[in-house]
DNA sequence: ATTCTGAAATGACATCTGTCAACTTTTAGC
DNA sequence: GCTAAAAGTTGACAGATGTCATTTCAGAAT
């Protein structure tokens, strides 16, 4: 196969977790050092040779864990999102008891707190480092939010249509509001947080009224 | 300055149009060949050395026109969008006569026809090759759509708030629906087209009712 | 026509991505 | 403990990005 340098980032790139203990430690070290490097110098300075040099290991070794530099960013984003998902799961009971409008408002509230308290996650997920399109962790979150939306919905009415996939679109719309706020203001302002709630609620409401 | 290969794409990268006639011809040749290459082999195969080799010119020469490969894609996308914008301008009279709901529906209709009839534009703009964030042409379109929304709005009511920037968000939301349709189905299906209309209308409607 | 000046073209250099055959270390079966 | 087999590591190679001093060329003034 011919070499294919990153004329285009591979949004599907994913880490291959090693099995042996020493290798696992190095794998984690790569992630830790990458996060550190990102926070110190931003995305511009991020590269596999830099991480390797800082850890005193060779490039090739890192490439056995991560097929592309993007895979490191994906893994970092995934771990941040896993914590957000854990937070959702933790409080799932609260959400189930709410009206769907309040549930959306609450989910958005959690997500805003998450992003506004984590510069690295914000940079990766909202800043465009980790492409939304086809990104596994992102899809996972969307599926999760989608599932949440579906559950919320089914408490009250018939299931949502699959074309358009309303649950996914609702999540996409919320994310879009977050991204715009981050791009224009550097964080998620209360105004954009409210805009996300409104846009999600009103789009979803359409299908409720339609039934 | 140290070399900085594309660990991250530069979404602001823009072409530098040459002044001399021969150079201008070569500049256009690069764009034409790039579009051809994209349609033949997709984004994966796109690179400056490939374009240079197909045109029998040197890499360095192309770099005098375009600071990054991304700048070529941006310029291509910009030209496609210019044509869309021209179409909007052409029919501005029709839009001004409509209700704002119909105007949104019409704008979406034009955009859908545009994307569904241009594989290259679709790939560039909806496929993630050209990042939405901070991309000049994209912003231009958004400002245009935003301006359109503002005009539509002001015919009926008070101006839209600037925080959140409702006009931009409406455009973002529509684009999000398009992107999701393209990602999941390869084109903009009628269902997603309708979803875009609904999502945009209902979000905008909120601010109308609020006044 | 000639000359001059700035635009354009070039190729060499430095750095990064991605692959791979060869080599070393760890693990597991005996 | 010993020894395959599996897992991990390495450095060299190929191709891409981005920079830049140097050379070439186009167009304008004389």
Number of structural units classed as domains of chain A: 2
- CATH architectural designation of the largest domain in chain A: Orthogonal Bundle
The sequence of SSEs of chain A as H and E is: HHHHHHHHHH
Top CATH class of the largest domain in chain A: Mainly Alpha
The proportion of residues forming helix of chain A, as a percent range, comes to: over 70%
**Rg of chain A, nearest Å:** 19 Å
Structural class of chain A: mainly alpha
Largest interface: A-B, 46 and 46 residues
CATH fold call of the largest domain in chain A: Tetracycline Repressor, domain 2
How would a textbook summarize the main sheet of chain A? none
Mean pLDDT of chain A equals 83
Q: How would you describe the oligomerization state of the chains in this entry?
A: homodimer
Shape category of chain A: elongated
Q: Which consecutive residue ranges of chain A, at least 5 long each, have pLDDT under 50? A: 1-8
Distance between the termini of chain A: 53 Å
Strand content of chain A: under 5%
Number of helices of chain A: 10
Report the count of strand segments of chain A: 0
């Amino acid at each position: 196969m011919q070499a294919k340098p990153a004329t285009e980032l591979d949004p599907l790139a994913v880490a291959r977790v090693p099995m042996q203990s020493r290798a696992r430690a190095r794998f984690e070290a790569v992630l830790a050092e990458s996060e550190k490097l990102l926070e110190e110098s931003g995305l511009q300075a991020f590269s596999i040779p830099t991480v390797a040099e800082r850890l005193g290991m060779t490039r090739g070794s890192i490439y056995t864990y991560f097929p592309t530099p993007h895979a490191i960013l994906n893994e970092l984003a995934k771990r941040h999102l896993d914590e957000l998902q854990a937070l959702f799961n933790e409080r799932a009971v609260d959400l189930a008891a709410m009206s769907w409008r309040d549930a959306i408002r609450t989910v958005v509230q959690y997500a805003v707190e998450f992003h506004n308290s984590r510069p690295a996650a914000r940079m990766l997920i909202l800043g465009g480092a980790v492409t939304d399109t086809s990104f596994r962790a992102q899809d996972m979150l969307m599926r999760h939010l989608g599932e949440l939306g579906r559950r919320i919905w089914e408490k009250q009415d018939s299931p949502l249509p699959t074309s358009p996939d309303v649950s996914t679109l609702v999540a996409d719309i919320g994310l879009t509001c977050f991204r715009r706020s981050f791009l224009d203001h550097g964080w998620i302002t209360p105004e954009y947080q409210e805009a996300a709630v409104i846009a999600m609620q009103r789009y979803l409401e359409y299908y409720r009224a339609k039934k």
